[in-house]
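Design a sequence for this backbone.
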């Protein structure tokens, strides 16, 4: 999906209206109803005592009109809703004024407010931010600034409509902006959501389809590419009713060491949960066998008394496991002291492969290993591993570049798909095309082992026949969505929980997956 400018979004809205395919009232209605649907799902993840009342905040523009629609729809769904408008109804733009007239009289509504009363910021309230839209440039003026500061100080759950109020829709600059837990942007993501301060204010970003026709959306002037649920759904698709385990791919996870047995279990377990028909875990024989799904196939390598990490002595034994494998994963928990021979042997195979964690450190230290690569590669660095790879592969100048440029540079140099992990994970392919920016995920993923889970997920999707860039992008999106499905405190999620949430996340994207 294209990432666009604010002006381009205005142009497409105007084009849809002038062409007769929609009018402003209808577009606003679709935006509000689509947002309400996502808000209802978001509310399901909050404890009942944290979602007793919905507080809709409406500004003077069309973004405020969206808030009037959301308030009406949520009330019709049986929720307790209150609306606070920064202007009188007769000051609204024409389409927003029409929607304001449809607000049920039973909804408490205060107009022309200059500050929020204390009862709108009590525990149990959920804030719907429709104060300021994408037209803002510079710092917000009163009363908006005061209200934004009140909302941020209140610490309540906040859902932003189109863009968090106060954030510049193009640059992502934010002198004073709403801190949203979820942003529901209309039709296309805007550049300000993923640039500058945008990622710090948006939370997960969901794109609302407002029904612009293809004749309009095809004219979008792309300033980047986002990966959303709409992109993931066709990749997952409907599972073949005639499928059997041997038709769904066999993943070989070469992972673990005595100290990091859990990483191996997380990787292999995630591969199973992500749809691979068979998963074999090859690990150093002296590593304690971790608790893992009973469906996992175990393959200890080497001597059970002495082999704590992968060594060149295991290459022959490992070679016996390579035939009939559809994807390889190397590196989770493999230890910095593993020798390079095992990785070299895997690279020489003609099987698509994911390299993660200590495997990436090994590549950074011995970049000549890439010369042995005979198949498609996916590299999955976090920022620290990315810095090591850039230095090791002669790309140190890119250390000062932005994440998108770093991922592109490494992808071209390594001839691999690069997954640069972090908020809005970047996925770059070696063909030099524009990388994608992932829009799913929360800060809950900032915990040990979640990267091992992602490596296994990518491996499973490779094994099921996806192209390497599609497997990486789809797995990254589902991985992020797992965090959005977590209904506990963000800091309480652990990697084991992510594996358990894969099924739910996939079901949300493609119910027949």
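Sequence:
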């Amino acid at each position: 999906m294209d990432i666009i400018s604010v002006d381009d979004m205005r142009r497409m809205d105007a084009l849809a209206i002038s062409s007769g395919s929609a009018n402003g009232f209808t577009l606003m209605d679709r935006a509000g109803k689509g947002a309400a649907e996502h808000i209802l799902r978001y509310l399901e993840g909050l404890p009942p005592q944290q979602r007793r009342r919905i507080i809709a905040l409406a500004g003077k523009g069309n973004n405020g009109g969206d808030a009037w629609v959301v308030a009406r729809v949520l009330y019709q769904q049986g929720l307790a809703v209150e609306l606070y408008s920064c202007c009188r109804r007769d000051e609204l733009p024409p389409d927003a004024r029409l929607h304001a007239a449809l607000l049920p009289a039973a909804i408490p509504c205060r107009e022309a407010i200059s500050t929020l009363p204390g009862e709108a910021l009590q525990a149990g309230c959920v804030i719907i931010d429709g104060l300021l839209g994408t037209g803002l440039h510079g710092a917000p003026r009163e009363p908006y600034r005061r209200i934004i500061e009140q909302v941020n100080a209140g610490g309540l759950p906040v859902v932003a409509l189109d863009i968090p109020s106060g954030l510049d829709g193009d640059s992502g600059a934010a002198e004073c902006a709403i801190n949203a837990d979820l942003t529901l942007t209309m039709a296309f993501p805007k550049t300000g959501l993923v640039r500058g301060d945008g990622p710090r204010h948006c939370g997960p970003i969901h794109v609302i389809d407002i029904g612009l026709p293809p004749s309009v959306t095809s004219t979008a002037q792309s300033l980047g590419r986002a990966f959303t649920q709409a992109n993931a759904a066709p990749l997952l698709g409907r599972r073949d009713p005639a499928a059997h385990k041997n038709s769904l791919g066999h993943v070989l996870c070469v992972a673990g060491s005595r100290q990091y047995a859990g990483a191996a279990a997380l990787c292999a377990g995630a591969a199973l949960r992500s749809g691979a028909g068979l998963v074999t875990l090859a690990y150093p024989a002296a590593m304690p066998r971790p608790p893992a799904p009973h469906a996992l196939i175990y393959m200890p390598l080497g001597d059970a008394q002495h082999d704590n990490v992968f060594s060149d002595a295991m290459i022959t034994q490992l070679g016996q496991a390579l035939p009939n494998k559809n994807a390889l994963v190397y590196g989770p928990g493999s230890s910095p002291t593993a020798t390079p021979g095992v990785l070299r042997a895997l690279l020489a195979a003609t099987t698509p492969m994911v390299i993660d964690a200590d495997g990436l450190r090994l590549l950074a230290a011995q970049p000549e290993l890439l010369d042995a690569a005979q198949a498609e590669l996916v590299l999955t660095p976090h920022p620290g591993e990315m810095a090591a790879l850039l230095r090791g592969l002669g790309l140190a100048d890119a250390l000062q570049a932005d994440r998108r440029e770093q991922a592109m540079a490494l992808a071209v140099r390594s001839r691999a798909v690069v997954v640069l992990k972090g908020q809005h994970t970047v996925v770059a392919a070696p063909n030099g095309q524009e990388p994608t920016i992932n829009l799913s995920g929360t800060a809950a993923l900032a915990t040990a082992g979640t990267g091992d889970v992602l490596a296994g997920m990518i491996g499973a999707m490779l094994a099921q026949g996806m192209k390497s860039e599609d497997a990486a992008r789809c797995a990254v999106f589902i991985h992020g969505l797992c965090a959005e499905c977590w209904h506990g405190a963000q800091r309480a999620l652990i990697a084991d929980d992510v594996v358990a949430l894969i099924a739910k996340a996939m079901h949300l994207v493609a119910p027949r997956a």
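The domain at 235-509 is CATH 3.40.1190.20 (UDP-N-acetylmuramoyl-L-alanine:D-glutamate ligase).
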